[in-house]
Each structure stands twice: as C-alpha cells, then as structure tokens.
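Exercise 7.
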Amino acid sequence: MLTKTTYTKIKDAFSFNTSLFKQFTMLLCFGLIGLVSTAQETVIILDQPGSGTFVAPCGVTKIFVEAWGAGSAGGGSSNSNRGGQRGNAGDYSSIEYNLVEEGLTFSYTIGEGGKGVVGTNGGQSSDRTIMQGGKNNAFYIGVNQANNGGQIAYGDQAAEDGEDAANDADGISIGAGGLGNDAGDGYDGGPGAGGGGGTQVNGAPAKGGDGGDGYIRITMTYGNNNSTQYCLTEFQTIEAITHVNFAGIDYASNTTSSQENELFCTQVGTVVQGSDNNEITIKGNTNGNYKNYYVAYIDWNQDGDFNDSNEKYDIGENENSTGIDSENASGNINVPSIAKLGTTTMRIIKTGEDDGYANGACNEYQKGQAEDYTLVVKEFAEKEASCKTWVGDNGIGWFVSSNWEPKGIPTANDCVIINTLNGNSNPKIKGYETTGNSNGIAYAKSITILGDYSQLTLSVQAELQVTEFISSNSPIYITDGSSLIMEDGYLESSANGTIEDNSLLTVKNFSLTSTNASWDINDTSVLIIDETLSLDGDITLNENASLIQSSEDTNLSSGTFTMNRTSTTAHNTDYTYWSSPVQNFNIDNISTTSYRYEWLPTIDNKYGKWSKVSNTNMTVGKGYIIRGENYTASFQNNKPNNGTINTTITRGTYNGSDYIDISSTAVTKLDDNWNLIGNPYPSAINADDFLTENSDSLDTGSSVGTIEGGIRIWTHASELSSGNDTPFYANESASYNADDYITYTLAGSSPSGFDGYIASGQGFFVLMKHAASTPNTVTFTNDMRSYTSEYSNSDFYRTSNTKNRIWLDLIDSEEISSNMLLGYFDDASDAKDPLYDAVIMNSDNTCIYSIIEDEAFVIQGKANPFLETDKVALGLISTKEDVFTIGINKVDGVFETDQDIYLEDTYTNVVHDLRNSPYQFTTEAGTFNDRFILRYQDKSLSVDDVIADSEFRIIATKNFIKASTTTNTINDIVIFDVLGRVIYQANKLNTSEVKLDQLKPTNSPLIVKATLTNGTTKTQKIIY
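Solution. The predicted structure, written as tokens, is:
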C-alpha cells in the first residue's frame, strides 16, 4: 500500500506537514501519496515499498525525479560485548524530464530495506527502486544496497551506526542511519539509510536495525517560464459545479464530486483579444432550495495568480437546482485588448448563500467548489468595421479625417487602434484644434495602443472621452491642462505614462500590468479612480499631484506607490507638520538625523508636550513634526491610504478654572484637549467636509461630534512679509505674524489666504470637545477628498451660503501682527458654534479676538442677516507696554460696499472709522476684554437708552480691577472668592468707574458683582 509523507522545501530547510494532501488528490490517479505546493514548485514523495503508477497532472511542463535505493540491515550479535556492523545506504540517482505531456504515465517500483536478523548478519534490501517514463523512455535509478551488515568478529568493539542516506541534488541527506545499540537490538535506518548494529545483552542475542526503504521524490514545475502553480480555493463543504459552457468549452462534471478543486486542463476554450461578447453559462447543484453564486477568474496576464483588477467576473446566480435541470447562471466576459497571447487558466468558483459572491480565488468558503479550465487567447482582429485605425497620412492631428482608416474622425461609437507606423508620427490631441470637431473634444469607444514605438499625447487643454477602455503597450502623455475622461471605463497599461501641468485622468478602474510600467503624476495633476487601483508597476505622485479614490479600500498592489512632498521651511530650525499618505511608513524614512516629535495631549502638566519618536511606523491619520529646511519626504509603499479611516484622539481630565502654573504659563481646561492629526490620503481633503463630519453640532456641549473650533495649520515660522500687514490700506508696511498657526473654520481662515483644502501629507491640530468621551476618534472619508474647488463635492461646500466677513490685524511697534476673523453666515448662530467659531490657541501671545460668553475667539461666525445695529465686543492680550495699531486686513460680502466699520475705544471714548485708516493706541501689558467694540454705526446713530453688555464692563489687569459704565453710575461692588466668601465690598459709590488696586494679586479666580443705580447688575469671573 502507498502512504504519504509531505513537506515544504524552502531554502534547504524541511518542515513536515500532512494537512495539504487532500487539496491535491485530484492531480493523481492512484492511491495516497504526499505532496506540497511552494512558491516555486510542487513536490510529490513516494516512500512505500511496492509498485505503482504516477500520472503527470495538467499544467506541468517539467519533472525532476530523484530516487534513493533501499538500505541494508545492520548486523546482529550473539556474543557478549561484540556489536554488529553498520548497514549501508542505498545509491542515489536523478534525472530531469522536460516537455511533459499531460496524462503521461510513469511506472515505478520502490525497494524494501533489508531486515535485521537476531544473532547474525543483517538482510539485504529487495527490489531495485526504479521509475519508467512513457513512450518506452525507461530509466532505472536508485540502486539498492547489496552489502548487508555483519557481526563484528572479534574484540570488544561497540555496535556501529548505520550509514546515512545519500545526499540529494542540494547536498542534503533525506534519512539518518539507524543508531547502533551497545545493549540490545540496533535501530532502524531512515529512508534510503542503513540500519544500526545490535549487541547481545545478558546472553540474549540481538538483531541489527532494519534498513530504510527506497524513496522517490518528484519535483514538478508548472506553466510557462517556470511560473507558479495557482493557489487553491478551499471549502468547508463541497457542493459541485456540474456544467460549464464558455468559448468552446461545453463540459459536464459529476454532480456529487468530493474534490474542492477540480482540474480540467484538457477542456480548452478560445477567446480573442479585445472581444466583448463572450457568453458564459454555469450550472451547479444547490443541494436544496438555496441560492448559489458563480464567479469566473481568468489570468489574462499569465502571471500565475488571479489578483489583477480585470481578472474577476461575477457571472450570476442559480437557485433550487439539482445541477442537471434548466437552472443556470449566465453572464458575459469582456476580454482585455492587452490580454497576453497564448494559454492561460480560467477558474470557476461556486459559493453558497452565506458566502455570497467569491471575493478571492485563494480564500476559504463555507460551501461550493472550484474548477480550472484552459483558455487560449488569440490575437486581436487586425481591423473591424466599427474601428478606426491611425495611419497618420496628414500629420499628427487627431481631428484630421485623412489620418484615419477608414477616413473620418473617431466618434464615441468607434474603437480606435494605434499601431507603430514606419516614418509616421503618433497622434496628438490638442485642445485648440477644432477642425471637424466643433467642441474640441476627442471621442472613442475604446483605444488600443499596440507596438513598441506607438504613443498617445494630449496637450494644450485637450479633452478625450472614452466610454469603455484603453489598453496600451506604449506610453500615454497627458499634459498642458488636458483631461482624459473614462468615468465608466478602465485603463490597462503595460508601459509608462505621464500626467503633468495641471492635467486630469478620470477612470473607473486603473491597472498597471507590467512590473516595468511606471506612471508619473506631476505638478498639480490628478488621477481620479472610481473603483480599483491595481499595481504591478509603479505610480509616483510628485509635489502637489493627487490620487483620489471614491470607493472603499480596493487597492491591489504588488508594485510601488510613491508620493514626494517637499518642505519649504524658512529656517533649518523650523518644523514641518507631516502625516503619511501610505500604509506602514517608518518616520525614519524621512530622516534619521533630524528631530522628530509627536504631540501627547494627556500628561501631568495639563497642557500636553512634544515627545521624541524614531524608528516607528507613522499611525494613519496622526500628525508628526520633523525639523529641517527645504527637504523632500518620499512616502513609499505598495498601498496608498484609501477609504474610511478612524484616528484616535484623546484629552485630559482637568475641568477646573484657569490658572497660572509655576512656569508662568496660563492654563485652561482646554489646553490638554489639543490633538495633532493629519490628512491620511494622497490628495487634499476639504476642511469644511472634515469639520462637519467631526463637529456635527452647533452645540459645543453636545455629545455629537468629537472636535470643535476648526483646524490649526503651522505656517513655518514666517519671515517679514507684506502678506501679514493690513493690505486694506495702500500705505501700510510689512509685518511679522505673531502666531504661525493658520486657524480655519467654516467662517474662513485667520489670517486670510487659506482656501480650505488640507494638503496631502499635512499635519494639523484640532481641539477635542471637552464634553466628548475619551479616547475617541475623528473620521476621514473619501467624500472629503479633493484638490480644487472645481472638482470638489459641491453638494456640501456651501457655495450658496452668504458670507459677509471682516479680517482685523493687531500690529505692534515691531511690526508683529495678530489676526482675527469676524463673519456673518446663513447657518451660523450668535452663540458658540463649533463649525464656525475657534478659540485662541495660545493666551501667552499678543493677540486680538472677539468675546463669546467670556471666552476669547480668533474666529467668530454670527448669524445672517447682517444688521447695522450689531456690536461685537473685542478683546486683546498684550505681553508688553507698547503702541499698537488695529486695522482692516480684508473684507468681503456686504463689507465690500460702503458699509461703515467703526472701532470704539471705551478707555478713550473714541469711535474711529476703520475704513479711512487704522486705529493707533497705547496700552500696558495685560488682558483687556472691555476696551474695544466693533460697530457699524457712529455713536450718534446708536441706541443710547439701551445699556448693552459691552457698555457695562468689568476687567482685571495685573495691577488693578476696574468696573465702568458709559451711560449710568455704579452704586455698589462686591468681590467673592470661588467658595463664595466676600473678600471686598463697597456701597453707595455713585460713580461711573471704580478702580480697585488695594487687593493683592494672587493669580486666582475671583467673581466680581457690580450694580448700577438703575438696578442693572453684572457678574463676571476674572483671574487676579
């Protein structure tokens, strides 16, 4: 009887495995043998004495046979202290058998090892190990060992170990000789090895160990050019495919097969390159009233797998079928124009209701079966009646009728064939050429580019629309703002391509089918893929180029995706904020010598800190900073990030009052809520979409959404720039920006200039909601991906939202500026609004801001309609005594007209017209939340009989507390600590201003309550 032993041979190491046998039994026509599939070969082992046959499976092109003769037995022993001699190993031989025909039968005989005999010489092996090929090509290999082991005739010598089996072609022995035993019977030898000698003990004779049996190892190579055997599909329960009809194959198989994978290599179908009408019908046994699903995989590029994007076809379903009735699944298979000519494999996979359509040729499913068939791909027809072939008789113009055969410019119903032409130029589509084509757009149903020297070029804002496919063996160039639109088609390329100069390629499926193919997307150009990206070659995105995908993670890649981004920092000590657009990218691949940091929001100091990182993969969606000047980061992997991505954010738990810590840093409960995240995609994302997805509520205390207050983007330690001044006035000089973070909400950016698109690879800060649970996540989706407003998601970009905005600058005597934005919007509110409002990021810097509910905001969005009677309280923080200027930086909407804009200084009782000139004033260091009011009417036009909150003020500086009113008098004032204890009280004051400097400042929170003579009361929390 034949039994099996299986192993995988990888780099001269052996590891035994008996689980794979059932997967391969359909290859064999005889009992049980052992085999295993590796990345390069399949190995079959015959190791039991006797005779049998081996049949070459389909797909095998070469067989390498190695054989070991059986070993002889070790010597026995009948004398005390005298051990038996060793048994010798069998001989080894090998032969390579090329051009194997499917079904070729090999006969073989395996010799049996010699048997040990008690007290005397061991036996010889029987039968030579031989193997004979078909067609009278016989070869005898692996001669058995005739020399038996004898008894040691004299002396006190120990029993000998058996001889090891002969080495194979790689110099490795397959079996160890049996060990000699100095106190009993010898041990048996391994395959092809000799037995060990025995030694008599206490007068009891001993026998030698048996010799190892003969051994045959068959190594099979599959496919052309030593390609690999295809992977196997596994099923927990087998339910048979019963009939396949396709391309000349009309084959009925067993309705109750016990094989998971059946190989029908002799069933051959024929298809033609580029043919699009190839009907297929499949039947199968559903084992009752159940639904089954059928998928065809075809290895068009003959690379030994079914992983390419165009190699899967969902055929259809059948239900409640015996497999021999009329029920069937039917569909159509389009053959790619660049399908490789020659013989390839088609796999049909049937799955059950619980699995749905198969989603991989190598996966395991609950129920079903797989069958492999042979397909022959023939050459594409030279010319069809509906095709236009490029002949180039009159230059290179696409829109020239005589350049095509038959004559005429291709239409959307024509297939186009571009061949290599002797002495003629390749076609070029130019946007300004409209002869014979009124709208300047080129059309084709499909394009096939053949030959080694052909190419297709789009230039000068050209547009080409293709409805079905482009298959190319030659380069494609899309340049000069041109567009190739294939929204429902696919592009397959085995050659190079270039998209540059703000050009665009839109395609449903994109596949590079050659490892030598390389596509470069340069400048601000874009590749948009609706469904699948499949890379055997390489794609490189340079600088501001983008890859945009709308489907979830459908990237299939054995090639390389690279995105190059250059940091343009002002100093070698400045930092760039990064985020990786590819998976599993190590931060050290950007730099191993520069400082690299991540931001930790939750540490003991209650306001976060920077922490060094090195030799770690960048977490998808997380931000990092790296120091250096003008360097390029090359993000490289085989898989760009795509689909929905959830990135973890955290916050601290401090929920107390604001305070000054021991390092003189002002601390608030929000300071440990900042998180450094980043755009995870190889394309820009729309900040409005991101904020709406993750803020998602006008209520800052709402549990809906996890962040509030917009995004913060670092601007690289800006130099002196006129972009930081107040360009609203023609005669102002340049200034520095005091805060190098751009803040952006749906209201806009402060300072102005950011367009709301977060670049690929860009890290940025967000503020986690204090009411949100921690840890939590922010979400990125493909719907956010964009690169210009022209191709953005206009359904949400709020293009109809009326914007009336004012940007204000605060500039000190050293021309350091701070910016704020105030605007009026249809969807905003006058209360706190996480989509429109943004708190100041750093209260230690000089800055100007608006005030909402006693909090400082660098951006505030208020509700439309805009009213001239509106007044907005402004505050400022000054880190020094200085002369400052407040001016208009920019306006839009209603403020682009002659709408008045005034600044009221309550300390000097001046109302200044900001449209005419900036306002200059002097202040000491401190925080001033009661000094300025932005208004849109002169004071004489305001409603004087209403005491607005902005006209009744309580402020604290580092030296005094002040309460003031402009239209009444203060009657009394009371100051409490946080426990409610009165620490100061004054009554019957009858004055418009109270200045208290007798209290000692302790940097503690206090509550001030002031009452006017008309009964109006104001209570305000301060730090003093």
